[in-house]
Hints:
Elements: H1 2-38, H2 40-52, H3 54-85, H4 95-98, H5 101-104, H6 106-134, H7 144-151, H8 155-182, H9 190-217
Helix pairs in contact: 1-2, 1-3, 1-8, 1-9, 3-6, 6-8, 8-9
Amino acid sequence: MSGFLNASIARKVVMALSGLFLVFFLGQHFVINITSVIAPDTFNSWSHFMGYNPLVQYVLQPILIAGVLVHFLMGIALELKNNKARAVKYAQYNGGANASWISRNMIITGLVVLAFLGLHFYDFWVHEMNYKYVAVNPEDPTRYYAETVEKFQPIWRTILYVLSFVLLALHLLHGFASSFQTMGLNNKYAPAIKTITKIYAIAIPLGFAFIAIYHHLNPITH
Length: 222
């Protein structure tokens, strides 16, 4: 029993750490992407740096992909373990009285976010790999803004992105604060941490949704 508890705690710690890492990346990603609205030249410059800097491409990018895989695979493993170990089954479980809808459906929102990440990687990362290594096009530091705006022209893609950001917000509303609790930061600062994580969980996905809608409504005219 002790071994099971220790393994379960270790999984939760790994999931919390990987989640906090992804939250940090999300904020950094938002800072870059919001410049596509307020300063397209800056967006082009930063995107070109991220796309061709060896440290980003060959060190940070693999770490990011590994972080995504670890976080979601660990989440699925924990959910399966919890379901298996639960002595009282759902027939005797009043979920609404014990936990919020968000906390009871983290696996669902997580899987939807993972599917969205797949689409996002296809839209941008696969395109980038094709541009640089398959088609072997020359460097063009000015192409990123136009390519981003073009991606959001189909209404179905914009709607899909916005809905995904809503589910991301729901996932973060529970997961972000829970990560700090898992790391033992359940002290006098807990109320402030909870407030900050709630603001972040709503503001960042809302900002990404705004970016998608803005570019859909403001196509590049030639």
